[in-house]
Design brief:
heterodimer, A: two-stranded antiparallel sheet, about 65% helix, B: 1 helix
Chain lengths: ~575, ~60
């Protein structure tokens, strides 16, 4: 490990911390319908969209109305993206004359991007036309993130409002989230990435003559515009197969840092937005503090693990120490441009945030590092998470935490002035249980059926980790891949699509139900029986709940994969 | 998000498996999935016994 490496991690965390408050304030104004500096420019567009769609922005929806709107919106999105992928060979903006996508892959990809997962069982540059990338993938990156943020805001309104029957208007929240938040930031980020060297063109792939006289085809396309929203949205689906390890997606160390900030910015800002909406900014900082501790543990653990090098190489007396001639540590599967720290940080941010973009190959990380990446996803995206899913996941854990605390010490289960009763807990547990359910059941099935085993690239616990990682990533709507597993088969395409579907909709329906329950309640004033949730004690308690609920659920699954592989690696057994 | 289906040489373009029947099956899966999700939401609403669902001005 080097000082420069640690400085990269600290600098990134500091930038995100500094952005949290101003961005949180901006989100608050956007979702409250207040005036922002972009109002003169965007308001006419917003009004026109409402007029065309027949939306009455002043009419709000009950939780069920909000949920049905959410489901209809996603159903339409999946069908449209599916049709686009199936028909792409006959559409324009296809200079490479790529064929239509197969039905099972089209379904997998449509579900993947509409649910903000961005799992890719394909190589973008050899599978999708520019039309599919621009009007399919990129558009859904915007909309899925806006929908996720809308759900988070609806839940926050549940905490913030008193004796109300409505939690907002889904169509208005999605529209404002897209127009006022995602679009402006994406435009600025795209221009920055262009300046860094990311291509943006509709020209076909370039055929160039190499120094040896051979012909090399270099893929390119409208990358910069897709890259910005890929990171900001928590989506993570790359234009190229190599994702952010490709120099056309992530050309410089500076672009790497900015991409990392883009991934975390909105998720972190939503904690501040939550605090302000419930009238206690300190409460928002408490949640961010919990996220920061979990993030710090993951980033530090990953960096230490990867910088320590591979024990199997150490046994062969290979020099893995960092020096002027080499970065040291485990450099397999990593870009020399980013090194150990830049790769470990990106991997931690990517799996913690639910973005799923990669600048190194996770399959090449050491077993303990792979376990950390899995652990990040297994705690339900609460470490900042994607825009929306991070904060509503964390709020679910807050509900469980105050409920457990109430049982243990005899305090009334309350959180930010709302009583947590049996109904709220039932819905919360429903939301929390479906991701492990989808992950573990689908992993178990894939481990015992022939089509599941057919995709394996490695044997033993490493091969098992590849399967576990795939379904964890799908159900947690992360989308990153361990690689090594060939998933472009009907079995994997369909079961992973099922995992993504469950991980998105079976979570969000009860989340919105919790919002509907809370919004009808009055605000309960704090009393001597109230557990303070804006103090350091609650940080520790909430951390314990997250680690125990996540850890105990998945510990046996991790023991069979990463943990046993780590122990075997120390004994010289490789897979 | 690495393309799992891609081979080592990066040429992972899928083989197209055309067929209207398969499209119909995939679309049916989508419709059934969302119908179940909507039913799940209705069931949650019914079990919670919340006040009548009406959209309104807050």
């Amino acid at each position: 490990m080097t000082t420069i490496g640690w400085l990269q991690i600290v600098l990134f965390a500091a930038i995100v911390g500094l952005l949290t408050r101003p961005l949180g304030g901006y989100l608050l104004r956007v979702y409250a319908g207040e005036r922002t500096f972009l109002q003169p420019l965007i308001r006419p567009v917003e009004a026109a969209l409402y007029r065309i769609a027949g939306i009455k922005p002043e009419i709000e929806q009950s939780w069920l109305g909000y949920t049905f709107a959410f489901l209809i919106f996603h159903a339409a999105g999946i069908i449209m993206l599916y049709a686009l992928l199936r028909l792409q060979s006959g559409l324009s903006l296809n200079p490479q004359h790529l064929a239509e996508v197969s039905p099972d892959l089209a379904l997998n990809t449509a579900v993947s991007f509409v649910t903000n997962t961005s799992w890719q069982s394909y190589a973008g540059e050899t599978t999708l036309s520019y039309a599919s990338q621009m009007t399919g993938i990129t558009v859904q990156s915007f909309l899925s993130a806006a929908a996720g943020m809308a759900v988070a805001i609806a839940l926050i309104r549940g905490f913030a409002r008193r004796r109300s029957a409505t939690i907002g208007n889904f169509w208005v929240d999605v529209t404002r989230g897209t127009l006022y938040i995602l679009l402006p930031i994406s435009i600025v980020a795209s221009l920055f990435l262009l300046a860094q060297g990311v291509p943006q063109t509709l020209a076909p792939s370039a055929a160039v003559t190499t120094l040896e006289g051979g012909i090399q085809v270099i893929a390119r396309g409208p990358v910069a515009t897709q890259e910005a929203i890929k990171l900001l949205s928590g989506d993570g689906g790359g234009f190229f197969n190599a994702n952010s390890a490709h120099p056309f997606e992530n050309p410089t160390p500076l672009s790497n840092l900015v991409e990392l900030v883009l991934i975390f910015a909105l998720g972190a800002a939503l904690t501040n937005c939550f605090g302000r909406m419930v009238g206690s900014e300190r409460q928002g900082w408490i949640l961010l503090c919990v996220m920061a501790i979990l993030f710090g543990l993951g980033a530090g653990g990953l960096y230490a693990s990867e910088a320590g090098g591979n024990p199997a190489l150490a046994a062969l007396h290979v020099d893995q120490t960092a020096g002027e001639q080499q970065p040291g540590g485990n450099m397999e599967g990593k870009e020399v441009r980013f090194g150990i720290a830049g790769s470990a940080l990106f991997a931690d941010v990517s799996t913690a945030s639910s973005d799923g973009a990669v600048n190194a190959m996770h399959d090449s990380f050491l077993p303990l590092s792979g376990g950390i990446l899995l652990g990040n996803m297994m705690v339900d995206e609460v470490i900042v998470g994607a825009p929306g899913s991070g904060i509503y996941g964390m709020l679910l854990f807050c509900i469980v935490a105050v409920f457990l605390a109430g049982l243990m010490i005899g305090r009334t289960p309350e959180f930010v002035g709302k009583k947590i009763g049996a109904s709220e807990i039932k819905m919360t547990i429903l939301a929390l249980i479906c991701v492990p359910l989808a992950t573990l059941v689908l992993t178990a099935v894939a481990c015992v059926v022939e089509p599941g085993l057919a995709g394996l690239g490695n044997a033993g616990p490493h091969g098992y980790s590849e399967i576990l990682y795939a379904y964890t990533s799908a159900a947690a709507t992360n989308g990153s891949a361990f690689a090594g597993l060939s998933t472009n088969s009907p079995f994997y395409n369909l079961t992973l699509a099922l995992g993504m579907f469950m991980g998105r909709f079976l979570v969000i329906v009860p989340v919105l139900a919790v919002a509907g329950l809370l919004v009808t309640q009055p605000n309960i004033p704090q009393s001597s029986g109230t557990l303070p949730t804006d103090r350091a004690l609650f940080v520790g308690f909430l951390l314990g709940v997250i680690v125990i609920v996540g850890g105990l659920t998945y510990l046996p699954a991790l023991a069979l994969g990463s943990i046993i592989e780590h122990l075997q690696l120390a004994g010289g057994i490789l897979y | 998000v690495k393309a799992e289906g891609a081979g080592e040489d990066g040429k992972g373009a899928p083989t197209a498996r055309p067929g209207v029947m398969l499209d119909v099956i995939m679309l049916a899966l989508i419709v059934v999935g969302f119908a179940l999700a909507a039913a799940y939401a209705s069931l949650c609403d019914h079990s919670l016994g919340l006040p009548a669902d009406k959209d309104s001005v807050p």
